[in-house]
Write a structure and sequence with these properties.
With 117 residues, this protein is α+β, with helices and mostly antiparallel strands. It has one domain. Helix content is 62%, strand content 19%. The chain has five helices and three strands, in the order E-E-H-H-H-H-E-H. The protein has a three-stranded antiparallel sheet, sandwiched between helices. A hairpin with a 3-residue loop joins strand 1 and strand 2. Helix 2 runs antiparallel to helix 3 and helix 3 runs antiparallel to helix 4. The longest helix has 32 residues. The radius of gyration is 17 Å and the shape is elongated. It starts with a strand and ends with a helix.
Protein backbone atom coordinates (compact mmCIF):
# COMPACT_ATOMS: atom_id res chain seq x y z
CA UNK A 1 0.00 0.00 0.00
CA UNK A 2 1.12 3.51 -0.81
CA UNK A 3 -0.06 6.81 0.60
CA UNK A 4 -1.79 9.23 -1.77
CA UNK A 5 -3.06 12.77 -1.48
CA UNK A 6 -6.36 13.04 -3.33
CA UNK A 7 -7.31 16.44 -4.69
CA UNK A 8 -10.46 17.60 -6.44
CA UNK A 9 -11.11 20.41 -8.90
CA UNK A 10 -14.68 21.62 -9.51
CA UNK A 11 -14.37 21.12 -13.27
CA UNK A 12 -11.34 18.88 -13.82
CA UNK A 13 -12.23 16.17 -11.31
CA UNK A 14 -9.89 14.20 -9.10
CA UNK A 15 -6.14 13.76 -9.02
CA UNK A 16 -4.16 11.45 -6.75
CA UNK A 17 -0.51 12.16 -6.01
CA UNK A 18 1.72 9.70 -4.18
CA UNK A 19 3.28 10.89 -0.95
CA UNK A 20 7.03 10.35 -0.78
CA UNK A 21 9.85 9.79 -3.23
CA UNK A 22 9.08 10.20 -6.93
CA UNK A 23 11.00 7.61 -8.92
CA UNK A 24 9.87 9.08 -12.26
CA UNK A 25 10.97 12.50 -10.98
CA UNK A 26 14.36 11.07 -10.06
CA UNK A 27 14.91 9.03 -13.23
CA UNK A 28 13.44 11.46 -15.78
CA UNK A 29 13.66 14.77 -13.92
CA UNK A 30 13.27 17.31 -16.72
CA UNK A 31 10.66 15.35 -18.67
CA UNK A 32 8.68 14.57 -15.51
CA UNK A 33 8.73 18.19 -14.33
CA UNK A 34 7.59 19.42 -17.75
CA UNK A 35 4.79 16.83 -17.89
CA UNK A 36 3.56 18.04 -14.49
CA UNK A 37 3.68 21.65 -15.77
CA UNK A 38 6.05 22.80 -13.04
CA UNK A 39 7.51 25.56 -15.19
CA UNK A 40 9.50 27.39 -12.51
CA UNK A 41 11.03 24.19 -11.22
CA UNK A 42 11.85 23.12 -14.77
CA UNK A 43 13.69 26.38 -15.33
CA UNK A 44 15.77 25.89 -12.18
CA UNK A 45 16.59 22.23 -12.92
CA UNK A 46 17.49 22.84 -16.57
CA UNK A 47 19.57 25.89 -15.61
CA UNK A 48 21.40 23.82 -12.99
CA UNK A 49 22.17 21.07 -15.48
CA UNK A 50 23.34 23.57 -18.11
CA UNK A 51 25.54 25.34 -15.54
CA UNK A 52 27.07 22.06 -14.38
CA UNK A 53 27.68 20.98 -17.97
CA UNK A 54 29.36 24.31 -18.72
CA UNK A 55 31.60 23.91 -15.68
CA UNK A 56 32.48 20.41 -16.88
CA UNK A 57 33.48 21.74 -20.31
CA UNK A 58 35.49 24.68 -18.94
CA UNK A 59 37.42 22.65 -16.34
CA UNK A 60 38.12 19.62 -18.51
CA UNK A 61 39.63 17.16 -16.00
CA UNK A 62 38.72 13.99 -14.11
CA UNK A 63 38.07 15.72 -10.77
CA UNK A 64 35.58 18.08 -12.40
CA UNK A 65 33.79 15.16 -14.09
CA UNK A 66 33.33 13.41 -10.76
CA UNK A 67 32.18 16.59 -9.03
CA UNK A 68 29.69 17.41 -11.80
CA UNK A 69 28.29 13.87 -11.84
CA UNK A 70 27.78 13.96 -8.07
CA UNK A 71 26.14 17.40 -8.21
CA UNK A 72 23.85 16.33 -11.07
CA UNK A 73 22.93 13.22 -9.11
CA UNK A 74 22.12 15.55 -6.21
CA UNK A 75 19.79 17.55 -8.46
CA UNK A 76 17.97 14.36 -9.50
CA UNK A 77 17.68 13.14 -5.91
CA UNK A 78 16.35 16.57 -4.89
CA UNK A 79 13.66 16.33 -7.60
CA UNK A 80 12.81 12.79 -6.47
CA UNK A 81 12.44 13.85 -2.84
CA UNK A 82 10.44 17.02 -3.48
CA UNK A 83 8.70 16.41 -6.81
CA UNK A 84 5.43 14.96 -5.56
CA UNK A 85 4.94 17.77 -3.06
CA UNK A 86 5.70 20.33 -5.79
CA UNK A 87 3.01 18.65 -7.89
CA UNK A 88 0.45 18.84 -5.05
CA UNK A 89 1.26 22.51 -4.42
CA UNK A 90 0.95 23.29 -8.14
CA UNK A 91 -2.43 21.56 -8.33
CA UNK A 92 -3.65 23.54 -5.32
CA UNK A 93 -2.49 26.78 -6.95
CA UNK A 94 -4.63 25.83 -9.96
CA UNK A 95 -7.87 25.33 -8.04
CA UNK A 96 -7.60 21.79 -6.71
CA UNK A 97 -8.57 21.25 -3.08
CA UNK A 98 -6.99 18.56 -0.92
CA UNK A 99 -9.76 16.12 -0.02
CA UNK A 100 -7.90 13.43 1.92
CA UNK A 101 -4.67 11.53 2.38
CA UNK A 102 -5.17 7.78 2.30
CA UNK A 103 -3.65 4.37 1.65
CA UNK A 104 -4.27 2.60 -1.66
CA UNK A 105 -2.52 0.37 -4.17
CA UNK A 106 -2.77 2.78 -7.12
CA UNK A 107 -3.77 6.40 -7.78
CA UNK A 108 -6.94 5.14 -9.46
CA UNK A 109 -7.82 3.09 -6.37
CA UNK A 110 -7.24 6.13 -4.14
CA UNK A 111 -9.58 8.22 -6.28
CA UNK A 112 -12.11 5.40 -6.26
CA UNK A 113 -12.12 5.29 -2.45
CA UNK A 114 -12.90 9.02 -2.30
CA UNK A 115 -15.39 9.11 -5.18
CA UNK A 116 -17.36 6.17 -3.78
CA UNK A 117 -17.40 7.45 -0.20
Amino acid sequence: MKTFKVLKHPHLGYRAVKVGFSWPGFLFAVIWILMKRLWGHALVVVSSIVLLSTIEIIFDNAQTYVMVILLELGVYVFVGINGNQWHVTNLQEHGFALIDTLQAETPKAAIGKIANA
